[in-house]
Amino acid sequence: MKTLNRRDFGVAVAAAILLPVTNARADENLEVHIDNFVFQPPELKIKLGTTVTWTNRDDIPHTVVSAGKFRSKTLDTDDKFTFTFTNAGDYKYFCSLHPHMTGMIKVE
Q1: Are 97 and 56 in contact (CB under 8 A)?
Q2: Computed over its alpha carbons, how large is the radius of gyration of the chain?
């Protein structure tokens, strides 16, 4: 078994923290939280039929938009938006009020 040096260990930990991916089974309900201008987790890998709910935990409004696929209303604090994924593909999404906020749903 190979032992990681400090640099490799640091890179591995940073990748695990910065790039979490959550996998889901079909018919499962998952949540994405909007907190401090970030979608968390930033990427989900899910199966067809999975429902995802976004909850705004920030003190300011946000939206959830995937061009041509879905669009939430403006979400105030604690508001939720839910979408069920019935087609396979990659769904890039963002906040239309703060376009630097992005996320990805990968549906298999």
Answers
A1: no
A2: 16
